Amino acid sequence: MTESSEPASHHQPHVIENRIVYAALSGYIAPGERLGEKELSEIFKVSRTLVREAMIRLQARGIVEVMPRRGWFVIEPTVEEARNTINARRALEVGMLATADHVTPEKIAILREHVRNEQRALEEDDRAQRSYLLGHFHVCLAETIGNPVLGSILQDLTTRTVLIAALYQSTHDAHESCDEHSQIIDALEAGEPMEAVRLMDMHLKHVEKALNYRDVASRMESLKSVLQKGPSL
Amino acid sequence: MTESSEPASHHQPHVIENRIVYAALSGYIAPGERLGEKELSEIFKVSRTLVREAMIRLQARGIVEVMPRRGWFVIEPTVEEARNTINARRALEVGMLATADHVTPEKIAILREHVRNEQRALEEDDRAQRSYLLGHFHVCLAETIGNPVLGSILQDLTTRTVLIAALYQSTHDAHESCDEHSQIIDALEAGEPMEAVRLMDMHLKHVEKALNYRDVASRMESLKSVLQKGPSL
DNA sequence: CAATTATTTCTTGCATACAAGCGAAATGAT
DNA sequence: ATCATTTCGCTTGTATGCAAGAAATAATTG
Question: Where does the HTH gntR-type domain start and stop, copy by copy (chains A, B) (predicted)?
Answer without folding.
Answer: 10-77
